[in-house]
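2024-03-11 09:14:02 INFO receiving multi-entity request
2024-03-11 09:14:02 INFO entity count = three
2024-03-11 09:14:03 INFO echoing inputs for audit
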Amino acid sequence: MASIALSHLRKTFGKVIAVNDVSLTIADGEFVALLGPSGCGKTTTLRMISGLEMPDSGSIYINGKDVTNLPARLRDVAMVFQDYALYPHMTILENIGYPLKVRGVSKNALTAQVQAVAANLQIDELLMRRPGQLSGGQQQRVAVARAVVHRAQVFLFDEPLSNLDAKLRLEARAFLKHLQREVGITAVYVTHDQAEAMALADKIVVMKEGGIVQVGTPLEIYRYPANTFVASFIGSPPMNLLSCQLDGSQLQVLAGDDTQSIGIERMALPSRLTAGSQFTLGIRPEHIRLKTTPTANSIRGHLYVTQTLGSESLVIVRVGDLLITIRLFQDEAPPLPDVVYLCFETDHLFFYGQDGQVLQ
Amino acid sequence: MRTLLQRIVITVFVVAVATFFITPLLWFIFAPFNPQVSLAVTIPQSPSLANFAEVLGNSLAMRGLLQNSVIIGVGAMVGTSLVAALAAYGLSRGSIPGRSLLIYVLILFSSVVTGTASMVPIFKLIFDLGLINTHTGVILVMIGGLLPSAIFIMQDFVDSVPRSYEEAAMVAGASPLQIFRDVTFPSMRPGVMVVGIWALVNAWGAFLIPFILLRSPELLPASVTFYTFYDPESGMPQIRMVAAYAVLYTLPVILLYLLINWRYGFRFFGGIKQ
Amino acid sequence: MQKAVLSRKLSLLFLTPALVFVALFLVYPFFSIFQMSFTNRALVGANALNPQNVGLQNYMDLFDTQDWMRRGEMGHSLWLTAQFVIGSALIGQAGLGLGIAVAFHNRKGLLRELVFTLAIAAWIMPDVVVAFAWFAYLDPDGTLNQMLQAVGLRPQDWLFDYPLLSIILFNTWRGTAFSMLLFSSALASIPPSYVETADVIGARPWQKFRDILLPLLRGYIATDLILITLWTFNTFTPFLLTGGGPSYRSNIIAIYTYEVGLRFFQFGKASAIAVIVMLINLVLASIYLFISRSRQRQIA
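2024-03-11 09:21:47 INFO inference complete, emitting structure
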């Protein structure tokens, strides 16, 4: 049980700045996901919390205690690695029990504790086997068991599901969330999969180029993306982003040689937008309505492709040089003519300035 | 898919190659069991183990095989694999600047300073150290010669052990000593085995180094003892001895090769055998 | 970017034993050869205790224009070595190894196992044993002459009349396995779809070899040629078959160095030979490292 605080962490590798001025607090029992594309510094941040990497500057506190200069083995954290790091020369029992063994736990007590944990994770049948004989999903559970067994203060996960196939990944996601609730332990989870972060975390930390760009609950991040990076990263399919210009009482969608205008009377435009200013308009695919005839404030486009996904379907429409995605909550897209009209739900619009930040 | 002509060409080529490789060894199939052996291939009139009995009765031959070759082979094996394992671990896991350049220079050096080039200074060095005509001298020189390739091979094994193994142990709370004992060394074991057996086979077969560094007949390993049985300059070869001795001397090499092949598969380390 | 597991001090400690060996048996001989090559150092006698600096005298002896192509002299030995390397390494080992690898490409079966096992056996057996096998094989009464007589050809005293040809055949037999294994694993790494595409297009076997396999093997062939040239240039094993004779007719450079340095104990002159050997090695090894590094860079 522990809280974590990171204060102005910075880490460079040669000339590459991996993490730059990262500050974050994680409450006791909270499940936090570090989310971002590869190279954004999320794994380096995790490794600094674990003690495998030492920051160039800044400090790390676990439960209020400064652990910045403590080596990994003295921090009392548990970590699940992307490749699981199960030792091929040890049995599953020995693998799971290794953290206990180095703490000098007696053989009998070690076996008993490992068996209890293994039974809870439903891998007690496998204890005498070796890692090579296990499936990917089983190996993943063993790696988790090894992290659970010594009741560390903090759980660290480094993309633990990325080596599993899609179906197993969904199963493992549910299992991890359930386990974390049950044990109630503080967890930090690194992933590049936004759906995974949304599904698992109490709090998502979106990172980009070594820094934090937004922190919030999954719903906050989804509903109020603070900038175009988060907007385009969260949601599947992601938000449509259209470059626009304000022209008197009209809003021009700049789509190459097919610039079209829509009225702004029902839009809650940010006050900073004045006539002539350029900005980015964001709208999620589920907030666009599709019409076959022109209506007020609609824009015209050409049908590009439709995709049937089972529970929903996607329609992609070409407007000038833009492709706009529309989500329909029906299992099959209706037959559509070549020319269609798009209507934006005006209370679900996002406005981003030219720096990419949301405009209030 | 192949035409008849192609098949004939390939078959003729393959049969010729097989003949080329097998005929020089035919003599060894019959000669060890033929007490009336000559240099011609003949099927023994009365096959017997008399040639082997003669080798077993020759104290120099047996001492060379069972004592001197074993001492030199095991010495070179233990020394080479130990020193190479330490070096490879230090190189792979340490923070040594210019590590790839270091290995580059090492391989370059060992390709340039070959046995042919360095036999005179090495003879002189061992002579000056007072190690001439000792097994210690032979073993040290062999370790020196085998080491660059051994480090190169071993490093491949160490590099293939994921760092997350050691990191997981660190996070689990293991001390550096515990990590080496429980995780690193067991993970390196296949490499230590391969390098050790490779060094043993090389030392077992080596001729030049013991030939120039040893003088007393009772210190000679099997390779040099074998040579004294047929030395072209010493007159008539003792063919009966040679035939049976060759079998006894070669057998361990073949067995070790089969062991490596069965245990690890024949992994191909460009240039492992020189 | 990976974090080091060991500190710099600790990793140097791990390296120390290896560095001592390398210093003693690689670095010291290297410099010692240069230094000795300018002296008249010998093992015994006055020159052993008090070697004189003779400047370039040893080199001038080696390259003496009147004598140097005479039997048993430097030029003659280098000429023999060149023929030996071209015959046994470049033509023999590489050619035969490539032939076997291509002939058995994508094929399994008893014959393949037999040929591979025999070639590997020839490669891993101890020097003295294979040398004696060939000594018996090439003897006037030996297997080769028995076979020749069986098909009605005249027997020969191979080791006496054709010593250079004998050691060329011997070294081809001894070392083909390396090229064979290198080329067959290189061929195995070529995706079958490459050759199948050519099949579908309608290429003939020779065209497939020339247009698909050979270009993909080019890097491996270069590597192989350089390595086996380097090893064959330095091999001492033919000494066990012919001792360099008769009358210096198989006196390749390794045997020549041995004769001068460790039979007649003319350390100075032998070191001058060794300097020449090392220079040639340096050229070969540099080409090899250059090729393999530029190939690594291509992969990365």
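2024-03-11 09:21:48 INFO post-check: The domain at 53-264 of chain B is CATH 1.10.3720.10 (MetI-like fold).
2024-03-11 09:21:48 INFO post-check: Chain B touches chain A through 18 residues (CB under 8 Å).
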